[in-house]
Design a protein that fits this description.
There is one protein chain. 74% of the residues lie in helices and 0% in strands. The chain has 145 residues and is mainly α. The chain is elongated. The chain starts with a helix and ends in a 23-residue tail after the last helix.
Length: 145
């Protein structure tokens, strides 16, 4: 993974994990041990879904740049669909507090998206390829008369 991508992943994951820790403490106070389990599970789901999605999107950008925008839209749509499926499957579980899971998942998702947007806005990523095909010379424009 290139350093810019790893830095963006790190800048999104650290605040999300911190949010999950705060969610676990609050859920532990409000719902006990099952609340802590739900909050930790919600944080893990967000980090896995968003982290894997970001890795897939970066690989697509490298290999198929013309599909980047469409792939991003499809990726975020499929992440929401998978998240809905996971939540509907776990809705009636007694292993953890579902409200703590849901609220922590929501908070962690919002923090991930905001941190990822901030990381992209502050990153200094070249959008012009410094190594051109013509050996560094500029192409002539206009007529060659």
């Amino acid at each position: 993974m290139p350093s810019n991508d790893a830095r963006t992943l790190l800048h999104a994951a650290v605040p999300t994990l911190a949010t999950g820790a705060v969610g676990a403490v609050v859920s532990g106070v409000l719902a006990g041990g099952k609340g802590v389990i739900g909050a930790v599970l919600g944080t893990v789901v967000v980090v896995l879904f968003m982290g894997l999605g970001m890795i897939v999107l970066q690989r697509t950008a490298k290999s198929l740049p013309h599909l980047f925008q469409a792939m991003g839209l499809m990726l975020y749509t499929s992440q929401l669909l998978l998240l809905f499926i996971v939540m509907s499957l776990l809705k009636n579980t007694t292993l953890f507090d579902f409200k703590a899971f849901g609220f922590t998942l929501l908070a962690a998702t919002i923090v991930w998206v905001a941190a990822q947007a901030r990381a992209y806005m502050t990153a200094k990523i070249l959008y012009v390829d410094p190594a051109s095909d013509n050996g560094g010379r500029t192409a002539k424009s206009g007529s060659t008369a």
